[in-house]
Amino acid sequence: MSEKSMFTTLCYIEQDDKYLMMHRIKKKQDENKDKWIGVGGHFEPGESPEECLLREVYEETGLTLTSYRFRGLVTFCLGDEMTEYMALFTADGFTGTCKEGDACEEGELVWVEKSSIESLNLWEGDKIFFRLLEEEIPFFSLKLVYHHDGSLQDAILNGVRMER
Q: What is the pLDDT of residues 19-40, one digit of tens each?
C-alpha cells in the first residue's frame, strides 16, 4: 500500500452566498474528526492540482465543477513531523446533484451561510484563509504551524508573520 501524498486540494463551492461544507463525522481515524472543512483530498500519482480537485469534488459530492479558481497555496506543519501542501480553490459553477445524507463516505455535506462559517468547529488556520478569500486577496501563500494539541502556533502570509 502506498503512502498518502503530502499534496492535497481543498475547495469551497459557492452558491447563493453559501459554501458547501463537509462535517467530518463518519471516520473513526480522521485528523479532521468533528471539524467542518471544504471538499478535496490527496493527489493521485501524476495528477495536477486541477485534476485532483475535479476528481475529489466529484467523488465526495457528485458535482462536476464548471467554474473554479486556484486561490492559494497553504502549507500545514505539525512541528517537525509533518508537512502538507494544499492547493486551495473556490468554485462557483457546477453541474450534477449534490450527494445527501449517508451518500458521502467522508462526512455530512451541508450548504452553510457564509455569515455563519465562523461559528462552526473550524481549524484556527481555516478562519484565516476564509478571511483572505472573503477579502478577495489575490493568490496567496499561507503557512500554518500547529502544536501537537491542534492549536495554531504560527501563521505566515506571503513570507510575513501575521499578528494574531
A: 999 986 665 665 766 789 899 9
